[in-house]
Each structure stands twice: as C-alpha cells, then as structure tokens.
Amino acid sequence: LKGGRVIVLRRCHNPPMRRFLLTGLLLLCVQAASAAEVDERLRALESREAIRELLVAYGRTLDARDFDGFARLFTRDAEYVGGGNLGTLRGPEAIGAALRRVFQANPSGISGTSAHLFFNESIGVSGNIATGISMGAFVITGDAGRPTLLLLATYHDQFVLEEGAWKFRRREVRSTIPAPGAPAPREAPRN
Fold it and tell me: How far apart are CA 130 and CA 125, in angstroms?
C-alpha cells in the first residue's frame, strides 16, 4: 500500500518472497475483516445498552408523571398496544395523552409514590432496528407505607434508531398479573 494505492507486483520470481507477500496480504485482509466484525459487535452492544436505558426512561417518565417526556420515547409512527382498555394508540402525542388520562383517572386508587421496575430483557439488534421482550413490575406505596406489587406485565417491543436515538416503534403491553379491577390477562397469540 503506497499513498492509498495498492502496488501490484506483476512478476515475482522469488517463490519464498511471493509466499511472504501473499501471507502478508492475507493477514491484512483477515485483520480488516476482524476489525469490521469487532466494530459491528461493539455497535450492537452499545445499541443494547441504549435500549436498556430507553426501558428505564419509560418507567422513570411515567413515575415522574412526565407525559411529554414519555411521548418523546416513541417514533413519529409509533404504535402502543396497551393493557386494559387502551387498545392500539398511534403516534407519540396520542400515546402520551392516553397515559396522562389513565394516570389522572387513577383506576387503581394509587396514592403516594410508585415505581416501574424492568427485568428479564432480551434484546436483538440488527443495524438500526431491534426487537425485545421484557417484563415489568409496577410497585406502589401500600399499607403502612410499604412497597406493594400492583401489577406485572410482559412487553413485546420493536425499536428503531431515529435521529440518533433508540425509540419505541411498537410496544405491546400484556398483563401477566393484572391490577385489581383490571380485565383478566388475554391469551398471548401463538406463533
């Protein structure tokens, strides 16, 4: 390699030198492939971590009742398939407004602080898109100020890298253990 150009030796009459040059060329190709593979794996790991941060931001914005911030976690064409009677919501503004109404109506009679906890996430990344399944618990202030599990949910997600940030493209919330007074969990579709 000289000045960005590959120099091709048209004739090399020395077999050991030819083997040496070919071995060197092969090593350069392997090294370049390895560097690209490492770079790809690093991007996937960074993406998974950013998506985990997105899952945490989902709970943090709801717990803070920051519904505008919550809406910004979704893509412009997002779908949110909520548990209970929410149905399918489309677009970040509609999603944020619907969750605001649910929390204002307070159908479970929550008083005090609450916390969303997320766990058992499985995230698959392919370039600028990703899928995930995770679980979440909603913990509220119960009797005598003690933490009380209100509900448990399973999330089926599609994520997209939009304007440099990972966002929810589609989030389906399936009730695993419903809140008191909520409809019974519906049967998960079979694939």
Answer: 4
